[in-house]
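Long-time lurker. I teach an intro course on protein structure, and each term I like to show students one example going from raw sequence to a predicted 3D structure in token notation. This year I'd like something fresh instead of my usual example. Would anyone be willing to generate the tokens for the chain below so I can use it in lecture? Attribution to the forum is fine with me.
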Amino acid sequence: MNRTEWNKEHIEGYVLSQVKEQLQLQEDVAPDYELASYGMDSFASMNLVVAFETNFNIVFEDEELLFENFATVQDMVDRIYGKLQP
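-- Reply from a regular --
Happy to contribute to a lecture. Here you go:
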């Protein structure tokens, strides 16, 4: 898929799979649930950012790399989707 073909549903599926893998979760994660309660820390968050940048061929600026900007799956999806828009 090229960057214009990614819709929020596709992005969410990818983000959810990466979050579950990074946090070693078996259960599903609600998109609006705070990931810190699942054990997300800044290290895990940055690992996800690298995966997102690589997979979606995007770059997050330094000022965007705040833990609270990636607190939920929905936050991540919205940020990625925004980067993919022309």
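Some talking points for your students: The mean pLDDT is 93. The helical segments are 8-23, 42-56, 73-84.
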